[in-house]
Structures are given as structure tokens and as C-alpha cells.
Amino acid sequence: MKQIICIAGSPYCSSTILSFILDGLPHASSWGEVFSVQTTTEGGFVKNRGFACGVCGTMDCPVFNEEFINDKRDVYLKCAEKIGESDTLIVSDKLFKLYKKTLQNVTVPVRVLLLHKKAIAGIKSLMAHDDLELEEAIQWYQNYYKESIKFYNLYGGYVLNIEKFISDPEEELKMLCESLDLDCDVNALNYWEHEHHQIGGNNGAYISVLGNKGVDKFGTTSEKMFNFFGFNEEYYNKAFHKLKKDETWKQFFSDEQKELIMNDERVIRIVERLEKLKGEN
Ligand SMILES: [Zn+2]
What we know:
Elements: E1 3-8, H1 15-23, E2 28-32, H2 35-43, H3 45-49, H4 66-70, H5 75-82, E3 88-94, H6 96-103, E4 110-116, H7 119-130, H8 134-155, E5 157-161, H9 162-167, H10 169-179, H11 203-210, H12 222-229, H13 233-240, H14 249-252, H15 255-262, H16 265-279
Parallel strand pairs: 1-3, 1-4, 2-3, 4-5
Bound molecules: zinc ion (ZN).
Zinc ion binds next to loops.
């Protein structure tokens, strides 16, 4: 089925890894945060570094090549044109405000994959990556999900809890595929074994895909990245590909903070709404 699936949710909700997994499904292409082609080319970033695809690391990429980058039309429109008769395109820009204007011009059906991890883990990620205070992070979390739920209600789709997905990936992938009319192949879960072309997203997932054989999305070799993050090959081969739940919040927050987050009305309301939508999947 020809369609675009937009991943919605907050930043750091595991969309990069999920994008790589979905990219391995038959008749599906998952290109990551394609909107950044638009923003980065306007800002000159892609041109300056000489490539867009975080996996190829050159303009020789079959997807994000010079022709694609230099085509001034709307990015989703360009993407929609590139999908064949039976193909699904998956993009992970996450925020409706990025998708909004341009989706009006896309003629193929649009569906939303509403992705979330445990609220307290999401709030922790926002604090750690975006340098926010707890109160700000809760507010941001609420805003991201209010917007994402609105987006989901507009187009419909599927709600996915990443912890649930990780606890039974094969079964969860099958259910997701059935619900979104995707052909399922559980080999897609071995995402590091497949060819990918993606832009934007989380470094850890890129390292996992690149292994020790390529450049990362910033143009440094993955070997340098390994050294930078202190990874070694043994660690990488044994553990890095493995899908694992983000439980870093357990050490990050004090008991008092945990209590505060769990009892915060804004958090409770978002969790309830996500659960309700999941129940209607
Ligand atoms: Zn590429």
C-alpha cells in the first residue's frame, strides 16, 4: 500500500532505532528525520559538509543525493514521489508542526505511528539531553505529547509503547505491521544487518548500524565515535545491537523526584490518554 507513516512523539523516544527496524521490512523505506534536509540545506549545513545521509556519509547516497538535496520543492512531496506502487515511506520528524504544512500537499494516505516510552524515562531524556530543569522537562513532555496526540487523532494510525515492543519484539512487530498494512518480516529486527539510508536521529543507533565500517552522520569515522564514547569492538558485538529498555531514570532521579513525577497531573493525563488510544488500536 502506498502511504507515508509519520512517527510522532517526543525527542529521544527511540524513534531512530525503530526507524532502522521498519526500514528492513519488505516494501518499506524509512528515511529518518527527512525534514532536516529542508532545514539543513537552507542553513547550508548539508552543503558545507558535503553529504546528507548519515549512513553513506557521501553524496553518492541513492536517496539523499545531490538531485534530492537541490530539488527546492517540499521535502515530503519529494519523498512521496519517490515511493513506488507498493511502498510505504516512514519518516521520523516526530513533531506535527514540522509535518503540518507539507502534508497537505501529499497525495498518498498519511498515518501516524505514535511512539512513546515510559513517561519518567522520557522526562529524564529531555532533562539530560536538552539541559532542562525538572519542571521545564515535564512541561515540554506534556507539550510534545499533546501535539503528537492531536496529530494522531487527525490521521489515525498506531500507538506503540517502546518498552512493550522491547519485551516481545517479534509479536509487537507483527501487530504493528498488521495494523499499519505493512508486510512483516521479523528479520527486520536485526536492523544492523541491512542497508539503510537515513538522516538525523540518535547517535547510538547510528553506531549500531555503521559498526566499525563507516562514517557517522557528522562525518567522523565510526572508529572515532567508538573511541569517543569509549566503546570497544567486543562490547559492540556483544551488547550494542540489543534492544534494551531505558532505565537510566532509576539512578537519575531521587525518590522524591520520582514521586513528584508519578503524581504530576500533567504526566498522569498524558499517560492516561496514551493508554486509552492504545486500547483503541
Ligand atoms: Zn545513504
